[in-house]
């Protein structure tokens, strides 16, 4: 029972957290990102205190790096696939 819980619940969560930490650490100026609340923007500044400044249609906004969505940002930056005929 413990092994099943570990394989299906704990391990995937740990892998997801690792990916999100790596994503936040590899951010750089000019990256296009999406926040977890759905705001699209471009990274203008990365601060050492764990925050970043995003430029969006509403202007410049300050966010925590943890508020940036790995999944939605990777979809935004994925290359467009051509439509099948």
Description:
This protein has a domain at 29-78: SH3 type barrels (Roll), CATH 2.30.30. It is flat and about 50 Å long. Helix content is 38%, strand content 26%. By secondary structure, it is an alpha+beta fold. It has helices at 2-25, 70-77; strands at residues 32-34, 40-46, 51-56, 59-64. The model has no long low-confidence stretch (mean pLDDT 87). The longest helix is centred in the N-terminal third of the chain and has 24 residues, at 2-25.
CATH fold-level label of the domain at 29-78: SH3 type barrels
Helical residue percent band:
25-40%
Looking at the overall shape, the CATH architecture of the domain at 29-78 is Roll
Determine and state the CATH class of the domain at 29-78: Mainly Beta
Q: Biggest sheet, in brief?
A: 4 strands, antiparallel
| Integer average pLDDT | 87
Q: How far is the N terminus from the C terminus?
A: 48 Å
The helix/strand series, from N terminus to C terminus, equals: HEEEEH
> Numbering strands along the chain, what is their spatial order in the largest sheet?
1-2-3-4
Give the overall shape: flat
**Content-based structural category:** alpha+beta
How many β-strand runs? 4
Radius of gyration from CA coordinates: 16 Å
- Unreliable segments of 5+ consecutive residues: none
For this structure, the quaternary state is single chain
Please report the number of helical segments. Answer: 2
What fraction of the residues are assigned to beta strands by DSSP?
Answer: 25-35%
């Amino acid at each position: 029972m413990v092994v099943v819980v570990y394989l299906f619940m704990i391990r995937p969560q740990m892998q997801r957290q690792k990916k999100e930490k790596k994503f936040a650490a590899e951010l750089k100026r000019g990256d296009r990102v999406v926040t977890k609340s759905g705001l699209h923007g471009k990274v203008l500044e990365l601060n050492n205190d764990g925050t970043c400044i995003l430029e969006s249609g509403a202007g410049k906004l300050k966010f925590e790096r943890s508020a940036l969505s790995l999944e939605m940002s990777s979809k935004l930056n994925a290359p467009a696939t051509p439509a099948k005929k």
